[in-house]
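EI: anyone free to look at a 343-residue chain?
SC: sure, send it
EI:
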Amino acid sequence: MRWALTRHRVKPSELQRELHRHRQEISAQSTLWLSRAQARDHYRLHSRGGISVKADLFGERNIFYLTEYTSHERKTLLMMQPLPVKNMSRWMLLTTSASGFLSWKAATLDQYARASLFASEENVSETVLLVDAKVAVPSSPSQSAFVLNAQETSNPFLIDDALQHTHFATGAPFPHVVGSSLSTVWSQFGYTSLKWLLESDVNDLQGGISVLPGQTPHRVVDFKPVDLVHLRQTSHEHQQTTLHSTPRWVLLRSLKEPLIFSEGRWLTWREMNLDENLKTRRDRVTTDMWRALHRPLSFNTPSAELPYQLWYPCDHTFIYTGLPRRRYIVYTTFFYNSSQLGA
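SC: here you go
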């Protein structure tokens, strides 16, 4: 267990147990923790959930948030030592020197991180004001701190870059494209857990775990790259074999629209679920179609004059020239978040 801002370990053993218990309850992967004020003011994130922890679990405090003081106490402190007009830092600490003189100075990250665990009110200015306990202690300091797991914020990946969307049963991370789509779903539905189960894997669940009543899976889109080459880009022998073995209706149809050879079938880009059509220049297609209708093609027809819009995936079974054209096969899958599952 570590604090998100400083990456320091959470040392009090009782506090560790409290956070570990809460982490299990929300099915969180992250071991990073922060306060609402840190999520709001430092990371600019919204928060949800969290756990209230007694202040005495943190030990003796030596830095306080200005908002922990009463309005009268705050006014007195600012009258004793007004804020500087310039050279203001993001975090300012009112402290005292060895000779007893008060002054405002830039606070460290550690000082801000520890004090902001107890901040309750929203900071209305860009500058966070802290007070050294040697200057004054609030008459009624905060008796508790509200702590969040990184996954209880609107963007946990900004806090914990080790986080990934993972498979509920295997723990394996999902590919980046799927993970991005799952992040969108996660945010829209306010989930905490980053564990997901494919709808197709529901019947394989063990231990009495099943989908909770009334829960429906979420639609997620995945993209698989495929590189395609035109018949003109293949060898003369491959072109001859294609023209000899391809049904006539396929050749005729390919004069009007591109067809892709996939798993033994000729498919349109929509039938293959590609993200984009394989378009060729309209003037070239028109010219080629006119030629195809007015004179027969033979095996000796030059590659450049082949009018058929026939495409092949680059599967290393044939030689081609030039650069392939990349498209993406669109797959639709359905996922349950682990919070939609129960025993």
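EI: The radius of gyration is 32 Å.
SC: 👍
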